[in-house]
Design goal:
mainly alpha; three-stranded parallel sheet
Length: 174
């Protein structure tokens, strides 16, 4: 799905769900599909992301927010192929999406997790897809089950490390 799908959700339903769930952390993890949109308007995407951050803050004021930056992904036939076979490269809008996500997070005081960087940066999708035991599927977009476990473990470790650092700055555990 895309961020537009989140924005289109009925606000009364979202408000009810958030009131019942009472989340302490809301993770906004969109961007890959937008990154494959060759006609992406980065200004419109940024406005949409800012509006969704504001909406979630309004509907769940006690929750912390985190934007997960879009991961590396490759498209067959993309210009400037970086895959081992030279036939795949990053869709041009994907870097724009990540730039917007990082800027919005910084401007709005939202946590940001760099999925792209944590998986190895540019063209890491090809390396992860061509391993003896692949962590990404052959499409260089979707993770295998093992890859999901791998990147999920990194994500969890990073969140726990950030939480422990936050506790240390506060002077102890809750």
């Amino acid at each position: 799905s895309s961020l537009r799908d989140l924005a289109a959700r009925d606000e009364a339903v979202v408000r009810t769900q958030l009131a019942v769930w009472r989340p302490q952390l809301i993770v906004i993890a969109y961007g890959t599909n937008e990154g494959f949109d060759d006609a992406l308007d980065p200004v419109a995407y940024e406005a949409l992301l800012r509006n969704e951050v504001l909406r979630l803050r309004r509907l769940a004021p006690a929750a912390a927010l985190m934007i997960v930056g879009a991961p590396d992904a490759l498209r067959t036939g993309a210009a400037g192929g970086c895959s081992a076979d030279g036939r795949r490269g990053p869709p041009p809008s994907l870097a724009l999406v990540r730039d917007v996500q990082r800027r919005v997070a910084a401007d709005m005081g939202v946590a940001f997790w760099d999925w792209h960087g944590r998986m190895g940066g540019d063209c890491s999708a090809d390396r992860l897809a061509t391993m003896d035991e692949p962590l990404m599927r052959g499409d260089r977009v979707h993770f295998t089950s093992a890859g999901g476990d791998w990147i999920g473990g990194i994500f969890a470790d990073d969140i726990l490390a950030a939480y422990e650092a936050w506790l240390a700055r506060r002077g102890g555990a809750d």
